[in-house]
Design goal:
single chain; alpha/beta; six-stranded mixed beta sheet; four-stranded antiparallel beta sheet; 10 helices; 10 strands; 38% helix; globular
């Protein structure tokens, strides 16, 4: 299995605060890899460094063997590293379909854009039903679906998901994770940052648990899911909904 993304000895500072303290991670092609941990562990900082939003103090981020550390965001996105951000950040003044088309701005082929749109509507039928509605009228769960769909419109080689379950009801969370699993099964590599450790580990091939900017433990999703002491120490309650 080929290495798609490699993080080597990554260090990130916010002023005098060292947020990430020399972490190492690997994302293999075709996998779902999770970054878990409590608030302030460094999860979102790590994923933002991959997409170029946050700059590294030292260390390397490699994509398909190329060093992309601290490259501009647009250059990283053009390589196929596409992020669905925390908080969704949809464009409220546009319709659902207009939001999706914004995600396809780097795709030159009109046929490809059309196929992508069909695929998104296949994943998220509710978006097709509401494609002419203002994005601001969608529920929280529908807005999250729209944010993921918008990212997928760009043909990502790796999809970065930052807290996709944040603020959503348990039933909607279950639906979102089922769709994420389906996206992976159809060939998209996924790096996901999440606080909902139980649901994430059920779909993750591999996971890293961060604590205060360091990798505390790592392993297959299955192995970490069965580790009662890990949940008690670092991941909170085992919410089995």
């Amino acid at each position: 299995m080929s290495k798609l993304l490699e993080i080597e000895d990554l260090v990130i500072d916010y002023g005098i605060i060292r947020a990430i303290k020399g972490i190492n991670m690997t994302v293999n092609e075709g996998n779902i890899v999770a970054i878990l941990g409590a608030n302030g562990a460094g999860k979102t900082t790590t994923i933002r460094a991959v997409s170029g939003v946050v700059k590294a103090k030292s260390g390397k981020i490699k994509f398909c063997g190329e060093d992309i550390t601290n490259q501009e965001v647009y250059k990283i996105a053009s390589k196929g590293i596409i992020q669905s951000p925390e908080g969704r950040l949809i464009l409220n003044g546009l319709t659902v379909e207009e939001n999706l088309l914004v995600g396809a701005y780097t795709v030159k082929s009109k046929d490809r854009v059309k196929k992508n749109l069909e695929q998104i509507y296949n994943y998220f039928p509710v978006l097709k039903e509401r494609k002419k509605q203002q994005a601001s009228t969608l529920s929280g769960g529908e807005q999250q679906m729209l944010a993921i769909g918008r990212a997928l419109m760009a043909n990502p080689k790796i999809l970065l998901l930052d807290e996709p379950s944040l603020g959503l009801a348990p039933l909607i969370v279950k639906d979102i994770f089922e769709i994420i699993k389906k996206i992976k099964e159809e060939g998209t590599t996924i790096l996901i940052v999440e606080q909902n450790a139980f649901q994430t580990l059920k779909i993750a091939d591999y996971a890293y648990v961060l604590e205060l900017g360091k990798v505390k433990t790592e392993g297959s999703g299955k192995d970490l899911l069965e580790d009662e002491s890990l949940f008690a120490a670092y991941l909170g309650e085992r919410n089995k909904k």
